[in-house]
Design brief:
Layout: E1 15-19, H1 23-36, E2 41-45, H2 48-56, E3 63-67, E4 69-70, E5 73-74, H3 76-85, E6 91-95, H4 100-108, E7 113-116, H5 121-132, H6 155-163, H7 167-177, H8 182-189, H9 193-207, H10 212-221, H11 232-238
Parallel strand pairs: 1-2, 1-3, 3-6, 6-7
Antiparallel strand pairs: 4-5
Helix pairs in contact: 7-9, 8-9
Length: about 240
C-alpha cells in the first residue's frame, strides 16, 4: 500500500459503479465515495447483470468496485467480464476472502486492487487514492508470491492436470469458471448439492489448488485441448 498522501482535487475519478449484494455495505461504500468525490456520479447494483445494465444505459464509470461473490456470479468470472467490456477502466475487487492466493489470482486477472471487506474507511480512501494515481492497491499484510522456481508447475503439467479431470469434473469446472454457485451447478447438472461439493473437492485436489478462484485462474492461464472435453475455445468462451 502506498504511503504517499494526496488531496481530493487531484482525483480524476468522477463516476463509480458499485456492485455488491449487501445493501448496508453497498450504501456505506457509496457514502464514502460521495464524501471523497463530492461531484461523483455513483451507481449501485446488487448483481452483475444489473451492473451490466447500467453500462447499457450509456453510463461510463471511471471506476468499478466489484464484490467477488454475487448472487449471479462468483470468483474471477465477474472481473474478467468487466475487463473484457471496459478494458481501460480499473476494477477494485472487494471480498471477505482475502488470502494471498486469492489476491494474487485477482491481480493476475487484471484487478486494479483488492479491498478486504473488513477494511476501515481509511484503507478504502487509500485504495481510491492509489488507483486514481495509476497505482495498484494491495492491502496491508499481503505477501506477493515468491519468484517461480525450476520446480514450479509448467504449462504442460497444468494441461495434463486438466486432461486428467473426469468428464463430470470438467463440466463442473466450466460452470465454476462461469461463476456458478454450488446450488446453480447442482440444478444445471441435475445433481445433489452434496455431490457437487464432493466433485469440487476432488477436482481442486486433482488440480493442486485450494479454492475456486485459483482453479479458475489455472484454467484461464492454460491453453489446451483435453480429452475431458474442455477445449481452448471453451475456455475463451466461458471467460469472455
Amino acid at each position: 500500500m502506498s504511503k504517499n498522501c494526496n488531496t481530493h482535487d487531484k482525483v480524476v475519478i468522477r463516476s463509480v459503479l458499485v456492485i455488491d449484494d449487501h445493501p448496508l455495505y453497498c450504501d456505506a461504500l457509496a457514502a464514502t465515495l460521495e464524501n471523497q468525490f463530492r461531484s461523483s456520479s455513483i451507481k449501485k447494483a446488487n448483481t452483475l447483470k444489473e451492473g451490466m445494465r447500467h453500462l447499457g444505459s450509456r453510463f461510463e464509470p471511471d471506476l468499478v468496485i466489484l464484490d467477488l461473490r454475487l448472487p449471479d456470479v462468483t470468483g474471477l468470472s465477474g472481473l474478467i467480464k468487466f475487463k473484457n467490456r471496459l478494458p481501460d477502466v480499473p476494477v477494485l475487487v472487494i471480498s471477505a476472502e482475502s488470502s494471498n492466493e486469492t489476491i494474487t489470482a485477482l491481480t493476475a486477472a487484471g484487478a486494479a486492487g483488492f479491498l478486504p471487506k473488513d477494511a476501515n474507511h481509511k484503507v478504502l480512501e487509500q485504495a481510491l487514492i492509489d488507483i486514481s494515481e495509476g497505482r495498484r492497491f494491495l492491502p496491508p499484510g499481503y505477501q506477493p508470491p515468491k519468484r517461480a522456481r525450476a520446480t514450479d508447475i509448467t504449462a504442460q503439467e497444468v494441461a495434463h492436470k486438466i486432461a486428467d479431470l473426469t468428464p463430470q469434473q470438467s463440466r463442473i469446472m466450466k460452470l465454476i469458471c462461469d461463476g456458478k454457485a454450488n446450488k446453480q451447478i447442482a440444478y444445471e447438472l441435475s445433481l445433489a448439492e452434496a455431490t457437487v461439493k464432493a466433485h469440487i473437492t476432488a477436482l481442486l485436489r486433482r488440480l493442486g489448488v485450494h479454492n475456486r478462484t485459483q482453479a479458475a485462474l489455472l484454467v484461464k492461464s492454460a491453453s489446451f485441448e483435453t480429452e475431458a472435453g474442455l477445449t481452448d475455445t471453451d475456455v475463451r468462451a466461458i471467460l469472455s
